């Protein structure tokens, strides 16, 4: 096992990894920008090292600064968390070239899934059902028109290098395809430096269902059920739950085994998420994320496993500590993402926390790096806390979430907490009957 791990991240996810290290008897090294000198991850780690000025590009995204921090502290492995360098194949390559272990999949697997056309081709080859659409990139407007005719409108033009919902354009009819095609290419070029686009059938009322997978890198893999992350604003997840309210044990088994087998065949190492749109009983692959997800705690709650511990174990060459048959859904879990944002516009709201009190009690988990007097810097993501609840069933989880939100105190700044108080009253949230479009519509009507 590793003696010392460096965590190339900040905020709640850095704390999450430090906690796993401590329970495993592994020393942790925090890295931080000058803006984060007082951050909780710096206080909580065994060692801390400053890697640069506030902007992410000069600190948490600086490969050379992070590699130097590893050399100086003698860390043997790097945990990337999510975001920043977690899905950067060049970084993984550089880490391995320095004789340091990257806790996550290989550079090759990250590259394969980072390009959406290659990812879709790989998925199809491995027997994963995909959204019908163009075979590969679409070169010009005539080709785009032909695809529109073949699959029928509406279609969506998407950037192969896409991420964060950018470079995606809807064409509802043949009249709109030329504009959609050209603007998607322009946006893709500006955002990702790669103008290649592909075209898919646009699904009208899908849910976002994602399957958590885990591989040992040697050809053994399991799935850990699904999460429903349909409640999104601008393609950003806001509220996640597991298991999915619309997914039966048979469906879970069916799609889960397809995913586990695919990941086993790839000899994939570590945690991954295979994302689907789910409509009328059918799953359609959209992408695979080759890292730990923000919403991983809901899976941990219902499966009773520590995914970060497992990532570290597998990276150190140990066997998976569970078999597929050990992984049975226990109850229901929900996560809400608490952001430092001002409603109704969700404008970022950094500032000083004058008072903080975390909720507690049975089935409540608060993953956060907040503390009394903490100054939230303006340079990074606005996620400040994840409140996760677990109950014996969905109604109990909802009641527990309501109770825990009532106990939470975050004073001094605006947060998205009031949104969740309101959202919990909505009938669709109570029944679990919503699609990926439901939240945006509800926000328009209620905020
Ligand atoms: P990104 O990597 O930019 O997040 P994704 O391919 O994961 O892009 O898609 C993000 C979101 O866009 C999905 O969760 C869904 O809401 C919407 N979307 C993507 N493809 C389709 C499609 N074919 N039909 C309908 N909605 C889609």
From TrEMBL:
Per the record, the GO terms for biological process are: fatty acid biosynthetic process
| InterPro entries recorded | ACC_Biotin_Carboxylase, Acetyl_CoA_COase_biotin_COase, ATP-grasp, ATP_grasp_subdomain_1, BC-like_N, Biotin_carboxylation_dom, Biotin_COase_C, CPAse_ATP-bd
What SMART domains has UniProt attached to this entry?
Biotin_carb_C
Q: Domain Biotin carboxylation: where? A: 1-444
Q: Where are the transmembrane segments?
A: none
Going by the record, the broad EC class of this enzyme is ligase
Reactions catalysed, as given in the entry = N(6)-biotinyl-L-lysyl-[protein] + hydrogencarbonate + ATP = N(6)-carboxybiotinyl-L-lysyl-[protein] + ADP + phosphate + H(+)
Boundaries of every ATP-grasp domain copy: 120-316
| Pathway named in the protein's UniProt entry | Lipid metabolism; malonyl-CoA biosynthesis; malonyl-CoA from acetyl-CoA: step 1/1
Q: Name one Pfam family in it.
A: Biotin_carb_C
EC number(s) in its UniProt entry? 6.3.4.14
Keywords on record: ATP-binding, Biotin, Fatty acid biosynthesis, Fatty acid metabolism, Ligase, Lipid biosynthesis, Lipid metabolism, Magnesium, Metal-binding, Nucleotide-binding
Question: What GO molecular functions are on record for this protein?
Answer: ATP binding; biotin carboxylase activity; metal ion binding
Q: Does the keyword Transmembrane helix apply?
A: no
Q: Which domain of life is it from?
A: Bacteria
Q: Partners and quaternary state?
A: Acetyl-CoA carboxylase is a heterohexamer of biotin carboxyl carrier protein, biotin carboxylase and the two subunits of carboxyl transferase in a 2:2 complex.
Q: What does this protein do?
A: This protein is a component of the acetyl coenzyme A carboxylase complex; first, biotin carboxylase catalyzes the carboxylation of the carrier protein and then the transcarboxylase transfers the carboxyl group to form malonyl-CoA.
Name of this protein: Biotin carboxylase
What organism is recorded for this protein? Gymnodinialimonas phycosphaerae
**What gene is behind this protein?**
accC
């Amino acid at each position: 096992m590793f003696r010392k791990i460096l965590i190339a991240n900040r905020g709640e996810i850095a704390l999450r990894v430090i906690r796993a290290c401590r329970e495993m008897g592994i020393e942790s090294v925090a890295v931080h920008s000058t803006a984060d000198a007082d951050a909780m991850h710096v206080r909580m780690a065994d060692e801390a090292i400053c890697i640069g000025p506030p902007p992410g590009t000069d600190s948490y995204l600086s490969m050379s600064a992070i590699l130097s921090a590893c050399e100086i502290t003698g860390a043997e492995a790097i945990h990337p968390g999510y975001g920043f360098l977690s899905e950067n194949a060049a970084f993984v390559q550089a880490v391995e070239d320095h004789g340091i272990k990257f806790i996550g999949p290989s550079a090759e697997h990250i590259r394969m899934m980072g390009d959406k056309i290659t990812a879709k081709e790989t998925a199809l080859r491995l027997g994963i059902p995909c959204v019908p659409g163009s075979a590969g990139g679409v070169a010009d407007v005539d080709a785009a028109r032909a695809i529109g005719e073949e699959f029928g409108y509406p279609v969506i033009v998407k950037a192969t290098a896409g991420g964060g919902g950018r470079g995606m354009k809807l064409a509802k009819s043949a009249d709109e395809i030329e504009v959609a095609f050209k603007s998607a290419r322009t946006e893709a070029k500006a955002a990702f430096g790669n103008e290649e686009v592909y075209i898919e059938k646009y699904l009208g009322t899908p849910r976002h269902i994602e399957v958590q997978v885990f591989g040992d890198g040697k050809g053994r893999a399991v799935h850990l059920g699904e999460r429903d992350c349909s409640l999104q604003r601008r393609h950003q997840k806001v509220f996640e739950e597991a298991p999915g309210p619309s997914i039966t044990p048979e469906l879970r088994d069916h799609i889960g085994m397809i995913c586990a087998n695919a990941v086993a065949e790839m000899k994939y190492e570590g945690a991954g998420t295979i994302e689907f749109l789910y409509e009328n009983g059918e799953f359609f692959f959209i992408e695979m994320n080759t890292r730990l997800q923000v919403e991983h705690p809901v899976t941990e709650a219902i499966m009773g496993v520590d995914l970060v511990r497992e990532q570290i174990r597998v990276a150190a060459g140990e066997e998976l500590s569970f078999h597929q048959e050990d992984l049975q859904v226990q109850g229901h879990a929900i996560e809400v993402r608490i952001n430092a944002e001002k409603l109704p516009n969700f404008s970022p709201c950094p500032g000083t926390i004058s008072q903080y009190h975390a909720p507690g009690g049975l089935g409540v988990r608060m993953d956060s790096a907040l503390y009394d007097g903490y100054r939230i810097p303006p340079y990074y993501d606005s996620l400040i806390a994840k409140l996760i609840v677990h109950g014996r069933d969905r109604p109990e989880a909802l009641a527990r979430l309501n109770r825990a939100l009532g106990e939470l105190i975050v004073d001094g700044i605006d947060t998205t907490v009031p949104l969740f108080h309101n959202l919990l009253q909505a009938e669709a949230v109570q029944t679990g009957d919503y699609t990926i479009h439901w939240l945006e519509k509800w926000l328009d009507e209620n905020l």
